[in-house]
Amino acid sequence: MMSVAIVKRRLKEGKTYEDFRKAWYHTKGFGTKNKMYSLINAFDEREIIVIGFTELPTETEDILDGLRIDVKERLDNPLDDVIEPDIERDFGILISEDDFSAEGSIEYKNPTVDGMAIDVEEVVNGLIELKQALKQASAERDAAKKTK
Predict the structure, then answer these.
(1) 75, 80, 81, 84: CA torsion to nearest 10
(2) pTM
(3) Contact 39, 49 (CB under 8 A)
């Protein structure tokens, strides 16, 4: 399963995307398939949106290990000097990839990812595990921030 994170941050006055990128850029990989897409909001050039796609391990503890890498990155490389304190976060599991590039009519197809059929019940169960792991990682991050 592929998790998707959408994180919106607003640059502080006078800061640039390059300032953000230098502070945000990960120095340690996740050890699993991961791609992140960074966007600048077309209607607000100070808003940076990062969409991350990460293949979820099958074990909850392994999911937590990946989240802990991200928490450590943010604690070791804080963005406080570059972004406003409010951050909007959305997380989910990729349930379908749809290509509407063709011209003309397109027939309906069941959900697939990388050409493989998706079991919706499996995705729902994965959401429950992801939600629990995110809550635990957030609690660990908040506790670690208090000690810094």
Answers:
(1) 160
(2) 0.81
(3) yes
CB 7 within 8 A of CB 88: yes
Q: How far apart are CA 49 and CA 39, in angstroms?
A: 5
For residues 64 and 139, the answer to whether their CB atoms sit within 8 Å is no
User: CA-to-CA distance for 26 and 48, rounded, in angstroms?
Assistant: 16
Tens digit of pLDDT for each residue in 108-131? 999 999 899 999 999 988 898 888
Look at 105 and 143; give whichever has higher pLDDT: 105
Reduce the secondary structure of the chain to three states and give it as a string. CEEEEEEEEEECCCCCHHHHHHHHCCCCCCCCCEEEEEEECCCCCCEEEEEEEEECCCCHHHHHHHHHHHHHHHHHCCCCCCECCCCEEEEEECCCCCCCCCCCCCCCCCCEECCEECCHHHHHHHHHHHHHHHHHHHHHHHHHHHHC
Q: Which helix (H) or strand (E) holds 1?
A: none
